[in-house]
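User: Please predict the structure of the protein below. I'd like the answer in structure-token form so I can feed it into my own downstream comparison script.

Assistant: Understood. Taking the following sequence of 225 residues as input:
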Amino acid sequence: MELKNLAYYVDVSAFEHKALFEDCEYVFDFLKKLAVYIKQTLKPKILGVVMPGATVGNNVYVGKGSVVQPGAWIHGPAIIGENCEIRHGAYVGANTVTGDNVIIGHASEVGNAVFLNHARAPHFAFVGHSILGNNVNLGAGTKLSNLKVTGKEIEIEGIKTGLIKLGAIIGDNSSLGCNTVTQPATFIGKDVYSYPLSLLRGFIPSETIVKVRQQQENSSFDTQR
């Protein structure tokens, strides 16, 4: 499993907030720095459009060309890049940072999360304590679970993470099918594709297709009577 090589998963060279990842021993260590980084970096300002019916907290930056649609709520603290869409019914919780051209869509909830440029969670997604790489797309209903049912610290291959919550690290250009669920501490490389209804866990290497096989049987009414 790649735990120390951030470049295996994402290219942050074009990400405005790449300083967040400096001096991180493990790829998940940015989560430990995220709140402090936002506190030191955030200069609240609305340069985009907040439509009537949307709610934006005081500690929020919204970049040029970005639109916050009616019914969306950016609680913050949060930094939203340029040309982003925060769509109707979306909830953007604390400690969220996005790059440019990001979509957080209808009924999606995000928090303690980083979206690199062109990342998309367009419909009914949950993204917590996670990072979405460049051009990542989450199919409708995707959930990145971040908390063990025991509530205990997450360990990976005997390594204590120091984290109670750790969702998914999803590499550039990966796409998860509708209603995919990732278990806590799932690491997905670049250019990975998962079938709909997949349950993912552990480490999935780059350039992989994850296939879920299920058997469908169609019976006529007559055979069931």
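That's the full token string. Residues 57 and 75 are 5 Å apart (CA to CA).
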